[in-house]
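User: Here's a chain of 121 residues. Predict its fold as tokens.
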Amino acid sequence: MQHTPSYPGDEALTDSLIVASQQLSMQRAEMGRILGFKCADFTALFEGDALLQPGSQAWQQAERFVALFRLLRQRMADDRARMNHWLRRHHAALGNSPFYLMVDEGELETVLTYLQQGDGV
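Assistant: Prediction complete.
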């Protein structure tokens, strides 16, 4: 994690990640697991004390998570209840809930691909 911006995109992605995590009712510890951070590292992002480092694994995961959020928002007309339900319900094609797969199995990319293909929505 980097504590000073490398270029203006750092702040934009960090802010988008925070908004997406809030809209999807994600806890800081859950976001930390998705990004490969400790909870305290995500808290530093959340509180504006740090920014994502471009090119890092956390940066790539943040890009995927924000893309997932934007796609869900588009497909579900910004209905937070529907988005949260989709994220937490079991999907037979995935073998589990997208939430579980992202947080506990590190499968954010699998979930994003599933959603991009129009499956489950």
